# Entry
Amino acid sequence: MAPAQLNGNVSYTAYFEGYFYQDPENWNYNLVTENRGLYTSGESDTWVTIDSLVPYSQYRVTVRAANTKGSILSNEMVANMPQGSPDGVAPPTLTSPSSTSIRATWRPVGRANTDTQPVFQLQFRETTTGALVQDLFAQPTTATTYLKTTLTPYTRYEFRLVASNTVGSTQTEWVSLFTRQDKPGAIDPPMTTNVKSRSIDVTWEHPLQRNGIITQYRIYQNDQFRQSVPGNVTQIVATGLIPYTDYVYKVEACTVAGCTMSPESQSVRTLIAAPEGVPAPTLISETPTSVLISWGPPTFPNGDLTGYTIERRLRNTSAITLVALIGTANPRRYVDQAAVLTPYTEYEYRILASTVVGTGYGPWAVVTTRSSRPSPLNPPVVDILGPTSVRVNWKAPTNPNGILEYYIIKFPIPRIELRNTSILSLEVDDLLPYTEYTVTVTACTDGGCSESQPRVIRTEATYPAGQQPPVALPISQTLISVTWQAPPNPNGPNIRYELARLKLRQPLDDQAIGFNVWNSIYTGSNTNFDDRGLTVFTTYVYRVTVYNDFGPMISDNSEEVTTSGGVPQAPANLTAVPVSHVQVGLSWSTPDEVTLQGFVDRYEVIISSPALNTTKTYDSDTQQTVIDSLSPNTRYQFLLRLYINGGASIDSRPVYATTLDGAPEGLPPPQLYVVSDTALRVTWTAPAKPNGQITGYYIYINGQRVDPAMTTAGSYVLQNLQPYTIYDIKIQVCTVFDCLMSDTTQGTTAEAIAQDVLPPTLDVIDSYSIGINWTAPSRPNGIIVRYEIMRKAMLPCDLIQQPMTTAVPSSEKCSYIECGILEGVCGSQCFSGPKTCCGGVLHDNRLGYECCGTDYIPGRQSADDVCCAGKFYPRQDHFQCCGGRYVEVRPDQICCPDPTEDRVDVGFGDQCCGSIPYDSSGAQLCCTGTLYDKYGKQCCGRQLIESDVTCCGGSEEGIAYTTNVQNTCCGTEYVPTATTACCVDEEGKAKSHTYDSATEKTNSNEKCCGTERISSGLSCCNNVGFNPISQVCADRSSMESGCGSSTVCQSTQSLSAFCDSCQFNSSTSICGSVSGPLAPTTPTSPPTLQPTTCEDGPHRIYSGLGLSYTDAGLYPYITYEYSVVVVNRAGSQASDYASATTMQAKPEQVAPPTYKIVPSQLDTIYLSWKEPGKPNGAITAYILLRSGVEIYRGLGMQYMDNNNIKPYQTYTYLMRACSLAGCTNSEPVTVATLQAAPEQVLPPTVTVLNSSAIHLAWTPPGKPNGIITSYQIWQEGAGNIHTVSSGELEHTVKGLLPYTEYEFYLKVCTQEACTSSSTVAARTAEAAPQDAISGQFDDDDYASSHPVSVTKEQTVFTDTHL
# Structure
């Protein structure tokens, strides 16, 4: 209200003190407390609306009245704002993660404006006209994100957010976003029109679903990219095409997201044109007058060719000659042999190719016909210039038929070649005098040569030349034979000789004369002469003079020649002196030539001893020598024999010398024998010649001396050597004077198990594989045959696959039985006391009884009685027990029991075929109990087959194979011998083991252990290998071995390793065996709790010579241990284990959550879950989703969901288990809540029909919370007056009193409970008074014309207005 006195023009301002939003225009809905003037006006006493207030808050309100002189303030009033719908609801933020989805995210509301948190509904609509608005959540949710999928690419969609609370809702403006572009949809193939020989028009249509902005079209021609055009172009003209060629086109439409290729267009062929690209022909001149022409097809025939034309012309001329017309069906080659072709001439050829449209011309190709030999030459003209020279003149050939390359002048020897063909005259020297020559001239081209007719000449004569000196040979003391050769160049006719002699020395005659005078001793044509009558020991020279008709020539002198000497008169003087233990020095002096009657020709030294007789020869200049290679401490005789020319000799007197003492001789190298991996035995023999007293033998090993303290030959063991190491060993023998070293013998110690084996290096690759690397051991101690990688791990027991054991010992053979040490074994039972065991059956002892098989019967009447079928029979010759009968079986006979009838057959033979005796070496063959003709047949696997095939496995279980000499049988298998090892156990069971190659088998260093293979360095324990150094086999008993499960114990348990146990107590028990398996006994101990993890392995996962291996197929997040096993021929050695853990992987086997609904809590669902069957790592979080919305995240294993759970609703839950490697979803599980009492039950609508009837109508409850079973109409004071099924929604109540007020309410029931509405009242219509006089009227007519309706009105207040 206005002040009582305005006192001027007054304005009013309303001030509100309380909460205000800090900056709502920028979505800042933080609250600030301020006093704001929100309304100013000059009016008073009016109601105004104040906006911008915060719901669910309190304001202190005052009004200030002011004029120009001052102001007054009203009293303060408090205004409490009601709860309101949420404020600060921002539009969702839209992103398009893919072309078919949009993700909407939104922030929490600025203010809830109620005591409860708001829920959200995301609404969606397309931008087309009349599009419906869709709620994307089945019901409002607290989620803040939603992914809308199955959208159309590059399409604009609108979203808005509706935030609701218990008071109302607030919705945002619509926001829109285009989905991402995708590659276009299907595009039709392009169309081709206006086809010409070199161009085609190509058109196409835009794709129906562009899914974005078409940025370009890419056109492909015959699957090759041709060009691209902008996205608004739909036609091109393809030019530059090849005529008469098939073309197909494809169009690729592209957006920024990708491209889509159309199908191919229909194939279209361009029109025919003249050929193009006609190649030049290939020309070969095979002869001087022919040309081979070959050519290829045109590069672009541009249609079907009709033929080829060949044209020719001379080089550098224009006249063209048609050579030939060639059809296309003929080979593309032609030989031009026209008569006009001449040798060594240049021609040009070209090819013309034709179609029905035109002709294509190829380029000219040049060929030169081959050269031919020149035309015949005239004989040369020869001028004789002297005895050794002539001049040859000639003319060039008239027709060279090619390029003259050279001339040849032949005599025929010499043969002179001239490369300068311009020379036509030549002077030839160095010919032989007086020699006839046949001279020709030859002219040559590359096509051949032509030779002229010969010209015969003779050179002039001259002096003989080249006469060699004569050769003189002394024959005796008075004869010298002289020979000479004819001169090589007589140089003239009439050759004859003259021999002359010159005396040089005659030592034995001081009075001799005629020295240095040439005496002619022969003239004639012979070339030898015997010069007789000469003097003893006289020296001469000779010469020859040769004559022809032109003149003489004298040869050089011959070598000096001396006639033989006489008889020596005195010997040489010899001296011998010992030099060493193997050498003696000799020296001698010789008489003069007169005393010797000649000169010394040679010396011979004759050496003699008890063990040696030899002769050594020396030349005449030697006066001393050293005789070596003698024996020490030995007396030798030496004799010098002197020979003079002529052969006479004289011996010196013998001299003697004894060699000095020396080192031994003849020591052979030692012999070596391998003792072990650390020892070698060295043996040696005495030297062939000790040459003195042996003082000791010494062994040198790799240069190190070892003293065995032995003076006689023998052997010695070298210890502490390295395994598998090569040693150089020598023996040294010594005397007091010197030592002798033998040659080296190399020896190698035996292989030993490898040492210093390091664990492998492990590299974790991913969740399922580990890389393994290792190094060779520093001490391999042998040749490494292979490396083996062993793996073990602790795995969940259900992950371990139990492999089929191939080496399990057969329990069918026998079984162990353990009894007390005072007990005996009978069959499969232990016994003690006075009992008798008969064939495994136990009987009480009886006097005079004894065993017969398994029976215990009265004893034999005679000591030699025979037991047969539980009875004793007197022994008879040629009788035996057969089929339960004691029958006669003569020699060469056999008894055969009948398997089906109680009888036996006795007949000749050595085997039974069923019940029939037969001779296996005869002509019959038994197969499946039936006899057959044996010729060319055999029984294999119960079938009769040819004898030339191989049967593996015998007549019962055998399999037939085609014979192969490189294969062998292994059980029923026929395997390659070179690459297969066949292992057979004691029971005859066989198993084959295959190698990749024969070399691998040879180097594998493996042997058989039963049916399995083990390393050669191991011992066998019933199919299992063990190290005998550190282990012992317990699979044995006092009766039989190999009946157990191949138990191997440590060597420290050797005393208790017995009866397939490592803890057998032999002081209290004995171990026997029984044939076949023992029946299992029922366990009496309670079952034990099975472990969750079991040890897997060790398994051999690799075998080879590599140094790395990748172990794949592992389980994630499991710790695996690896060991390297080094195998050589001595055995195997394993390293320590190295461990590594595979990487984590996404969990597997995630089970859906289990749920429980408590009937008393209809708004709550209890959920629980288990760890994934395969966590594959450390679980970092469990995420529980309801209807795709996350409602829980953590490491707990249960959750109580009471978030807006409604009765009789269906909810879908999904468990997501996460590790560092990722998350895995379970299968969804659907949960249905129980029924509950209905909610939002409205009272019935009441219509008064008349004074005695009221019509009731109702609607179903807003929340049925189940299946409605009944509607009940209750009347106050009367109770339930009507019950109807769920299908009826109205009822008329009759028989009421007039003008009486009645109250009704509706009760709605489900199977669980009922809910009543509020009460509604109605009054029946008036009726005429009873027992009074009054006007009457029809109450029915009144009621129908004035209906009464009772309703409950609600007042609506806004949350932001006062």
Confidence is low (pLDDT under 50) at residues 802-811, 1080-1089, 1330-1362. The CA atoms of residues 183 and 258 lie 4 Å apart. The chain is about 0% helix and 45% strand.
